[in-house]
Write a structure and sequence with these properties.
alpha+beta; Alpha-Beta Plaits; globular; DNA binding; Transposase_17_sf
Length: 118
């Protein structure tokens, strides 16, 4: 999955990405899913999630984005308010692709190689 902040603002730094990963791991656990890989750049995040067939993708995405937006705004209000205004943190869209045909190791390597900001 790939999520971008509203207006594709460059809101992420190393500390915010680390906190975002922690929050998203917890949300996945609550859904019985596993966040297998996470990384990002200043204006988007990549997630490799293994989730059971009983989980609705749209509900998982909604929770990942909703909970992370709330927690990041609570933890980093001054920084985030420099880049985003109003109530929205994430863009309403997202990319979700299945990697059933690609080896999981290749997808993990791609996500690991994303340039993480300092």
């Amino acid at each position: 999955m790939v999520f971008t902040p509203k207006y594709r603002r460059k809101v992420f730094d190393g500390a915010i990405l680390t906190r975002c990963e922690e929050v998203m791991r917890k949300v996945c656990t609550d859904f019985g899913a596993e966040l297998r890989e996470f990384n990002g750049e200043t204006n988007h995040v990549h997630l490799l999630v293994h989730y059971p067939p009983t989980v609705t993708l749209s509900k998982l995405v909604g929770s990942l984005k909703g909970v992370s937006a709330r927690r990041l705004r609570q933890d980093f209000p001054d920084h985030i308010n420099q880049y985003l205004w109003g109530e929205h943190f994430w863009s309403p869209s997202y990319f979700a692709g299945s990697c059933g045909g690609a080896p999981e190791a290749m997808v993990k390597e791609y996500i690991e190689n994303q340039k993480r900001p300092d």
